[in-house]
Sequence to fold (482 residues):
Amino acid sequence: MAERYDLIIVGTGFAGAFFLMRYLERAPADVRVLVLERGGHDDKRWQIDNRRTSNIAPEAVFRNSTPEKEWLTSPGFGGNSNCWWGGTTRMMPGDFELKSRYGVGHDWPMSYDDLEPHYTVVEEVMSISGPADSPHRRSKPYPQPPHRFSEPDALLKKHFPDGWFHAATSRARVATGTRGVCCASGICELCPVDAKFTVQNGLASLYKDPRVSLQLHCPVVGLETAAGLVSSVVYQQDGKDERADGDVVVLAASALFNPHLLLRSNIGHPLLGKRLHEQMSIDVCLDLGGVKSYNGSSTVSGNGYLFYEGEHRRNYPACMIETWNAPFAYGHPAFRLEKNRWTERLFLRFMFDEIPRDDNTVTVLADNPAMAEARFVGYSDYANRAWAEIPRMVEVLGKALPIERVVNTALGRTTAHIQGTVVMGKDPATSIVDGNLIHHQFRNLLVLGSSSFPTASPAYPSLTISALSLRAADHLMVAKSA
Ligand SMILES: Cc1cc2nc3c(=O)[nH]c(=O)nc-3n(C[C@H](O)[C@H](O)[C@H](O)COP(=O)(O)OP(=O)(O)OC[C@H]3O[C@@H](n4cnc5c(N)ncnc54)[C@H](O)[C@@H]3O)c2cc1C
Ligand code: SF4
Fold:
């Protein structure tokens, strides 16, 4: 007979871990929680020895049918928190209201103010380093002081005091009990000094709670339904199918695997698996006259908000700029081959918001249903209008920087931010989950993570993923106690 649990969570990345954290804070001592994770516990020692973060190759779990567009996944305990780079900007208020403010895209079913308290908690847990003069309305300062600007950042800040800010990041400025200080080495997938937050170095204790049973190496293969609810989760253990019954079931398997599992379980919706998306990034490499780069104290040292909010969003996307501060430049020559001038080069990444297209999809791979298939045919016309704006934006930055020439402008292969595929909204006809990430039809099923994002803001997604998980757990616990 199948074991019964109050809660079953699939996945141990940001989405699953922050949900579990809030759930355990509020749940009684006798609840039983099962957490199922496809991968194993590849700890830091293993990761450094093997120079990768998971012993499961991405090709073993999904096929990318359009490989010119990269999607990255790192199955295992902690999910992609093991390989992320630690950028943690909040979304801006307008990102939640694209449709009602600017007449494009979709609104989110909540506002910035609804998420603000949750953002604050996530920043505390991750011990985020950020500026004192953030572009966001904040109820509390960042827990850690900012990283040191690079020289170009300092000039940009001087010229655009309200448009340029220290980067908000989980790459520690000050050592914590479990994390070292970031040293700007720029190999953040691995982070040998464990400076960035990960589930392994920040939230692993949750999984040792006596109420929680963590089962590693247990890929979930489907959900079963009965009487309008999800009744059981089917998973594999030691090559055999096992079943667990749950009162509440939470998918936190990412925007690649949440839709894959729902499709395999015949929990359909006309939009399921559609609207796979991420921000469009355009990388710009500039040569500067007499100003030296790579002297900030973390990999990305500044974020530019000069071209973010505003009426232009009716016509072309908002932009957040990253100043890259590590000699690693996505295929561009990072250094100038000129005597005494080799660091007079600046690499900027312009990240633009995206309105997802229905024809970018995640499906079940026809010849192997155990694998997901990602297909990306292109960015929207809206995002592509960003290209025409780049020369003007560079010209504006030239008011602060002595730009000698533009070395290169190129489309980024990926920002590694997989979003969409199980989108949220208020209307069950045009969305699959509601604002509390509860499935519109199966009300004991929650689908967490960036799969729910209706649009991609220029902000990094994981802080918002984590804040949404806290909000969803709060809502669940209030509903249970009512
Ligand atoms: C190189 C890189 C750099 C990045 N940098 C940043 C950054 O700077 N800032 C930022 O905000 N984001 C960044 N990201 C994105 C970030 O990693 C993701 O947004 C985030 O990890 C998503 O969290 P999640 O919990 O939803 O999913 P994941 O972290 O992907 O976790 C999903 C979990 O579910 C498990 N799972 C999947 N399918 C199954 C199944 N069938 N059965 C059981 N378990 C399953 C997986 O093994 C995994 O543990 C980066 C990503 C990469 C790859
Ligand atoms: S720059 Fe170095 S120390 Fe900082 S997060 Fe990246 S790898 Fe870790």
User: Anything to note?
Assistant: The chain has one domain: 3-481. Residues 10-16, 36-39, 72-73, 75-76, 79-81, 83-87, 189, 219-220, 252-254, 257, 261, 416-417, 449-450, 460-462, 465 surround flavin-adenine dinucleotide (ligand 1) (CB under 6 Å).
